[in-house]
Structures are given as C-alpha cells and as structure tokens.
C-alpha cells in the first residue's frame, strides 16, 4: 500500500491532461506504478492507460473516508474543497490503521509526523 494522494482536478479534465497531472504529482515522486487503484472513472479505464486500474475494498474505504472528512470541512457553498485536500491527505496518511497497526506515512518514511 502506498500513500494517499489527493490532487484537485475538474470532472471535465481530458484524459491527456490528467496524464500530465499524474506524471507531475505521482510518477515524479514514486515512479511508474504497477497498478492504479481508482474509482473506475472513465479517464482511468480508457485505452490510453497501458495498465488496468483495479478497485478493491481498501480503496472504496479510503474514498469513503475522504468524502466524510471533506463533508465536515468544506463550506456549504463547496468553493473551498481544493484548499482542504492537503490537510485531509496529511490526516489520512498519518492516521494509524487498525488493520496494519501503522500509518502509511510511517511505513513510507519510517517515523510518524
């Protein structure tokens, strides 16, 4: 399992633009992944991607956690959600998982922030 990354993009983003966002935000930090776990957005299941994203229970839970956290933080007009993502990412990655007994941040860097 790797760190959770949250990158704000519009739902209308083209797959080619999303590719560059992916390269800048994920690949430059971690290299080319063996797989992508996503919510099956068509941009991740298009023919452009040379590997096939998978969805599992863990990713569903993370997406659900992100949604719940954002619901509690975002203003009613929902204009500030993108600015909340860095702290949501930090909270998720530094939270100790009951199943792993470690935080993702700790597994990646060897210490808790």
UniProtKB/TrEMBL annotation:
<dbReference type="InterPro" id="IPR036397">
    <property type="entry name" value="RNaseH_sf"/>
</dbReference>
<dbReference type="InterPro" id="IPR050951">
    <property type="entry name" value="Retrovirus_Pol_polyprotein"/>
</dbReference>
<dbReference type="InterPro" id="IPR012337">
    <property type="entry name" value="RNaseH-like_sf"/>
</dbReference>
<protein>
    <submittedName>
        <fullName>Uncharacterized protein</fullName>
    </submittedName>
</protein>
<dbReference type="GO" id="GO:0003676">
    <property type="term" value="F:nucleic acid binding"/>
</dbReference>
């Amino acid at each position: 399992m790797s760190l959770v990354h949250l990158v704000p993009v519009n739902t209308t983003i083209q797959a080619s633009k999303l590719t560059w966002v992916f390269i800048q935000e994920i690949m430059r930090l971690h290299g080319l992944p063996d797989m992508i776990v996503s919510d099956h957005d068509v941009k991740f299941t298009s023919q452009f991607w040379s590997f096939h994203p998978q969805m599992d229970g863990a990713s569903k839970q993370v997406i659900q956690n992100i949604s719940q956290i954002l619901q509690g933080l975002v203003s009613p007009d929902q204009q500030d959600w993108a600015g909340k993502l860095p702290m949501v990412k930090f909270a998720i990655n530094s939270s100790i998982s009951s199943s792993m007994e470690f935080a993702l941040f700790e597994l990646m860097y060897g210490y808790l922030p």
